[in-house]
Amino acid sequence: MIRCHFARLLGERKLKIADVARDTGINRGTLTRLYYETAERVEIDVLDKLCDYFVIDLPELLERTSSTGQT
User: Fold this and answer.
1) Is 3 a residue whose pLDDT tops 80?
2) Domain assignment present for 38
3) What pTM does this model have?
């Protein structure tokens, strides 16, 4: 299972989805699906823009966990 930490990053930085959409040009629907972890696929350029925006590396945004909940 892939976990997305987009919601945590927004909370830590006190940002809204609309802020990120405006600043990055990423579709708001895409960001909403990442926030609720319902996205089935994400374009690589979207991940790259988010990493640049938050000044993080990809493992800080996405994490692969085992199906039993262990990392």
Assistant:
1) yes
2) yes
3) 0.89
Residues pairing with 64 in the sheet? 2
Q: Is 42:34 a contact under the CB 8 Å cutoff?
A: yes
Model pLDDT for residues 35-61, shown as the tens digit of each residue: 999 999 999 999 999 999 999 999 999
What range does the domain containing 14 cover? 2-61
Report d(CA 48, CA 69) in Å as an integer: 26
Burial of 4 by CB count in 10 Å (0-12 exposed, 13-18 middle, 19+ buried)?
A: buried
Beta strands in the chain (DSSP E): 2-4, 62-64
Q: Is residue 17 part of a domain?
A: yes
CB-CB contact of 64 with 1 (8 Å): yes
